[in-house]
Amino acid sequence: MAVAMRLVCISDTHSLHGKMLPLPEGDVLVHAGDCTGSGSLPQLDDFTRWMGSRPYEHKVLIAGNHDHCFVRYPDWSREMCEKNGITYLQGIEATIGSLKFYGFPWQPVFRWMSFNAKEDERWERLKLVPEDTDVLVTHGPALGIFDWIPDINEHVGCYALAKRIEELPQLKAHICGHIHESYGFAIRESDGIKFANASTCDARYRPVNPAIIIDL
Fold first, then answer.
1. What distances in angstroms separate CA 35 from CA 26, 54, 100, 165, 216, one per listed residue?
2. DSSP letter string, 31-100
3. First vs last C-alpha separation in the chain
């Protein structure tokens, strides 16, 4: 079957994008959050210049819990993305080719960092994800899917997100990061949805994981 679009997926680069493995060719570069280390504007400026210079027709970015600049300086942060040709998705959709992307940066509360949201807030925000979404990009994983932390022997993903995924009839791919220990890719047998935890950094914050390719 012919590939309509190739997604090159990364996440959790934490300002170490200059040290990561070379990126493969593709159509859309997708970053699932935590592009900065501490969320400063200079770090975001460096990252958006780098991402904007990558040889992809389209670039999609969402924020993560470390990316405080998108909360503290939203206008400047969005402007940096726009001037570098990056589509920034924060609770909004964008159509690229024949695919509808939706970006969702919020995740369960952890140390009260940026885009942390309590359970009731996550439920309400997830209701806004359009039913005809093809590619859902979230920072945190869904419960039970690439969300395992061995050190605490626990799944830490979002239950509300897992339930919303079940309600999206056209969903083809879910891309996340956040839990570095659960980097990986799988296709669910029951419905064919492609799942990727694309965390570039491992648990020790080394940018050693290669980008994940998703063909749609």
1. 20, 15, 22, 24, 24
2. E-S--SSS--HHHHHHHHHHHHTSS-SEEEE---TT-THHHHSHHHHHHHHHHTT-EE-SS-EEEETTEE
3. 10
Q: What is the dihedral of CA 146, 4, 85, 128, to 10 degrees?
A: -50
Pick the CATH number of 6-215 from 3.60.21.10, 3.30.499.10, 2.60.120.280, 3.40.50.460: 3.60.21.10
Supply the pLDDT for residue 154.
93
**Identity of the amino acid at 189:** E
Sign for the CA dihedral angle at 15, 18, 23, 25 comes to positive
Residue 116 CB partners (closer than 8 Å, separation 6+): 65, 106, 107, 108, 109, 110
At 2 the pLDDT is 53
Q: Which of 50, 14, 37, 3 is nearest to 209 (CA)?
A: 14
**Tokens 């979230």 belong to residue:** 138
Rounded CA gap, 27 and 99, in Å?
12
Spatial CA neighbour of 206 closest among 20, 11, 48: 20
- A 10 A CB-CB count for 25 gives 9
* pLDDT of 3: 60
- Mean pLDDT of successive 10-residue stretches along the chain, which has 216 residues: 83 98 98 98 98 98 98 98 98 97 95 93 98 98 96 94 98 98 97 98 98 98
Boundaries of every domain in the chain:
6-215
